[in-house]
């Protein structure tokens, strides 16, 4: 079954949001310099129609694959929060991580690059770094991560990695030990939340290398 689409017509015989291609086509076919675009959700279509077409035509706009009912269950992310993410180059093994303010994108901290790591390791270190950063500055904002594994490691105060130690990743494993020690010796009030990529798009702390 074809997925539902919403068609925005900015310039045509009649402008508006149309729920079928047939209705949309009636407004644009043969109309000089018609401007239109399809969207996967009604919310984004409404946002687009109430904005300039230049903000959407030819732009890489994230559109969720989830249904409207699924989106309602997830809700929106908390804007006044911090987000963390890690980057792992699968060909070189180079890893790094960073933390940003979710709404503004301001970089709060960044670490790396480190050699011979994994994505789970830096996702874990990023969360603990964020917790330590927030505790030091008395910040009680929620922290978002898109890694369920890393969130679980932090909760259990254990880095369950099968990655082997090597001469190249000594620094990384030292950081893991320090992170576990910090978790065992400190408490924190920050809520650690899952960033719902399928609903919201890429984590604001993403390095943009996918």
TrEMBL record:
Enzyme nomenclature, EC number: 3.1.26.4
UniProt superkingdom: Bacteria
Protein family according to the UniProt entry: Belongs to the RNase H family.
SUPFAM superfamilies, per database record: L9 N-domain-like (SSF55658), Ribonuclease H-like (SSF53098)
Main location per the UniProt record: cytoplasm
Gene3D superfamilies named among the record's database cross-references: Ribonuclease H-like superfamily/Ribonuclease H, Ribonuclease H1, N-terminal domain
Keyword Magnesium included in the entry's annotation: yes
Annotated residues for binding of Mg(2+) 1: 85, 206
Annotated PROSITE patterns: RNASE_H_1
Entry GO CC: cytoplasm
Cofactor dependence: Mn(2+); Mg(2+)
Keywords from the named record: Cytoplasm, Endonuclease, Hydrolase, Magnesium, Manganese, Metal-binding, Nuclease
GO molecular function: metal ion binding; nucleic acid binding; RNA-DNA hybrid ribonuclease activity
Pfam families: Cauli_VI (PF01693), RNase_H (PF00075)
Binding site for Mg(2+) 2: 123, 146
Function: Endonuclease that specifically degrades the RNA of RNA-DNA hybrids.
Cofactor note: Binds 2 metal ions per subunit. Manganese or magnesium.
Enzyme class: hydrolase
Catalytic activity: Endonucleolytic cleavage to 5'-phosphomonoester
Domain RNase H type-1 per the UniProt entry, residue ranges: 76-210
Protein name: Ribonuclease H
Subcellular location: Cytoplasm
């Amino acid at each position: 079954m074809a997925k539902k689409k919403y068609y925005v017509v900015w310039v045509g015989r009649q402008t508006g949001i149309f729920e079928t291609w047939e209705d949309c086509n009636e407004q644009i076919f043969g109309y000089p310099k018609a401007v239109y675009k399809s969207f996967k959700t009604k919310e984004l279509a409404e946002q687009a129609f109430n904005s300039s077409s230049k903000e959407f035509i030819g732009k890489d706009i994230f559109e969720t694959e989830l249904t409207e009912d699924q989106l309602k269950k997830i809700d929106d992310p908390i804007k006044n929060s911090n987000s963390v993410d890690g980057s792992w180059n699968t060909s070189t093994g180079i890893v790094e991580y960073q933390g940003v303010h979710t709404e503004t994108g301001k970089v709060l901290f960044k670490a790396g690059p480190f050699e011979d790591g994994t994505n789970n390791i830096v996702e874990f270190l990023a969360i603990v770094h964020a917790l330590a950063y927030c505790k030091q500055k008395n910040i009680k904002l929620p922290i978002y991560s898109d890694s369920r594994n890393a969130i679980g490691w932090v909760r259990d105060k254990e880095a369950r990695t099968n990655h082997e130690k090597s001469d190249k990743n000594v620094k990384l494993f030292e950081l893991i030990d320090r992170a576990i020690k910090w978790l065992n010796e400190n408490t924190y009030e920050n809520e650690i939340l899952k960033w719902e990529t399928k609903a919201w798009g890429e984590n604001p702390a993403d390095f943009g290398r996918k």
